Amino acid sequence: MKYTGNVIKYGDNVDTDVIIPARYLNTSDHKELASHCMEDLDSTFVSRVKQGDIITAGLNFGCGSSREHAPIAIKASGVSLVIAKSFARIFYRNAINIGLAIVECPAAADEISEGDTVEADLDNGIIRNITTGREYKTAPFPVFVQKIIENGGLMEAIANGVI
Description:
alpha/beta
């Protein structure tokens, strides 16, 4: 699984209430959720995010409630990958379950800047900052996680008989 995109960067403790504010939880429409993604944290996010972009963040990304709406909104907005120092446990599992690639790599999260172009090879655990030439190592995804993400989520992977 390889991803290439431009970086949108956030700090520590980005909670699910700012990823998708509670006032929009009355819908499960992915496009509608994407249209409000990060709205209370970054009012420019929706207008500048492009298909394939990568979010980098600090500690505890996705803390707060256990709602699946948060990773769904991120994925539906076009983000292909989230790299953070750490993730809230429930957010991490929800992201994998809906097929959003996420990886913990503290050095990359610290050193990659807003607007940098990043390439990530998650099968081999390599993140490259194309802008600066820096390379970071991370644990590769286990094969079963790769299959879940490649198939668009857990339910799709089960339906396709790959896990």
